[in-house]
Amino acid sequence: MGKNILVLGGGFGGLAAAHTLRKELGSEHKITVVDQQQLFFMGLTKLWVLDGTRAVGEGPGNRTLLNKAGIDFIEAVVTSIDPKRKLVQVGKRNLGFDYLIIALGADYSPSATVGFSKYAKNLYLESGCAEIRDILRSTVTGTITILVCGLPFKCPPAPYEATLIIDAFLRKRGVRDNVKLQIITPEPHPLTILGAEAGKVVTNLLEEKKIEYHPSEKVKEIRPKSVLTEKAEFSHDLVFGVPVHVVPSVIREAGLSDQSGWIPVDPKTLATQCAGVYAIGDCAGPKTPKGPLLPRAGILAEQQGKVVAGNLIHEILGDGKSDMFDGKGVCFMEVGGDRAAPVRANFYAEPNPKWELTPPSEDGFLEKRRFLEERMAAWFG
Predict the structure, then answer these.
(1) What is the pTM of this model?
(2) N or C: which end of the chain has fewer CB within 10 A?
(3) Which domains, and CATH codes, for the chain?
(4) 358 to 20, 45, 333, 347: CA distances (angstroms)
(5) Which helix (H) or strand (E) covers residue 328, if one does?
């Protein structure tokens, strides 16, 4: 008898899981992806909106094309999850499942930071990046603050990438000497989970570009002309912010999250405490061997999706095999000027995560573009 596999969320993890399942399982097994939007945009493209090298809404994937691959797609909002009864409410419909993969990502909570909605532009929305782009085109002087409002947040290098891209854009316009750039963050140093040495590589890049760095600063309030933290007050003319990230409310209401704020899972299999239910990507909270949560990144969500799909395939086919998520991934940290530094890491290595950072280059940037193009082609044809 065929199985009904339901995937909530059509991002990196959900798409990787669905395609892996469809490739290996016969048509008697139903695979359904639910997402509230037809169009898919890879998060890394938002940064390219900042300097105008990519237009808003350019080159999306269309999730309705999943139907051609034998994957059912439902465009709707997930309104409730009942893991015990194996039911999910999608809009006004109730969908049953044999297996459930939750890949709903993280939501943003600007209201969690006093003054964010009024005085900051959201660096993690494409629309916010478009606003920032337009502001930068007319900026000639003043102080720009890149502000991280809470931990954890998606793509740990992103605030630093954005700052370096803004620096390059202002230099190209010939106004950088008249503009002060500063980063304020609660992190003790960049790429915190990889250790202080990895962080120093990034802070050296900031120092070279005369970007001020203020770590270990927890924001209390954004004011019209200043940012107030628990320890100091920093003046500004513009604030481009990374909002507080939270688990989607439907997950909290289902009782699936824990005190960390995220869904606890087995770090190797991504299984939750509910039989047949898995969580991957930004909404999940797998822990590294030393205890900190695994960073949130698309490449890690993709690998998690493949591991969960692989284990469901093994279970359904009864071949006695199993797959394990190894905590390895790569990202490409942009530094402006069409250059990027590949950062390869093993977050599950013991006693400490291992990493390798290749110096920024045009080849690194081209590798990042290939990363995007290969996945868009694989998922949407």
Answers:
(1) 0.97
(2) N
(3) 4-106+247-317 (3.50.50.60), 110-245 (3.50.50.60)
(4) 30, 21, 10, 17
(5) strand 328-336
